[in-house]
Give the backbone structure.
Amino acid sequence: MSKEVEVAESPLRRTMFSAELYKRSQGRITRQATFGALALIVALGVYALHYQLDGVELNVRYIIDAVVLCVGLWMSFRLVNMPRFADFLISVEAEMTKVSWPSKTDLIRTSVVVMIVIFGLAALLYAYDLIWQAVLRGLGILG
């Protein structure tokens, strides 16, 4: 009988209701950052939900908020521990360690170049706009 129950149970259900951590020590930083981002999204959603339930009694609103928050945080925690997603996050962290990050001086130098190019393009587009306004006013199209 227990084998029938195991066969009928889906992997998603087994994963969502399990408290175990998948590959606990691997990809820890990326998984924590992902969980933090998901938790922030859930918390902001609960905050918005609280004000959407305006006609509901205050105590009931707080109970609904607490239940939705707990379920959302649990699902976020389980998501970062699902084998396929956790393996993806582990591989992301492994690839990020292979990246050659620029030095502080390279970062400043390239940032200054990017800002100069952006301001130059903005000035060029502004000049084009002024020229087209003058041409269209000269033709009587703009008033």
